[in-house]
Write a structure and sequence with these properties.
Length: about 120
């Protein structure tokens, strides 16, 4: 993977798939990998959903030295935390599909730019 944001989502999904309860995994995944991604650097099709996820992850005012993500996740039910985790996985999947499409298009461009071997050229005699 060459896209740093895609790499961050990959790391977040790996954290979500690890051991521990969903709230702990979600908090770690978001704090360590996704919280610093600027919304405007994501593909247009993902910006709105990522912004909404960030809002859900930081909506609670922190107290006693904890961060907004920790406070927000602490106040979530397990069902809410699972919903946020599903959003992370869904966004990652869409980023992968977009990256694959770009890779395929780049590969097609490379083939078009290459010289076609004579045995593949159809004779028009």
């Amino acid at each position: 993977m060459s896209d740093p944001h895609l790499d961050r989502f990959d790391a977040a999904v790996r954290t979500l798939a690890g051991d521990g309860n969903v709230k702990d995994r979600l908090q770690r995944a978001f704090e360590e990998n996704l919280s610093e991604i600027p919304d405007e650097e994501l593909p247009t099709s993902l910006k709105e959903r990522f912004t909404a996820l960030k809002s859900r992850m930081t909506r609670v005012e922190p107290h006693n030295g904890e961060g907004a993500i920790c406070a927000s996740v602490r106040k979530m039910s397990a069902k809410e935390a699972s919903s946020c985790a599903i959003s992370v996985v869904s966004l990652y999947g869409e980023m992968l599909r977009g990256n694959e499409a770009g890779t395929v298009l780049a590969a097609i461009d490379e083939v078009d730019a290459a010289v076609v071997p004579p045995f593949l050229v159809k004779s028009v005699s």
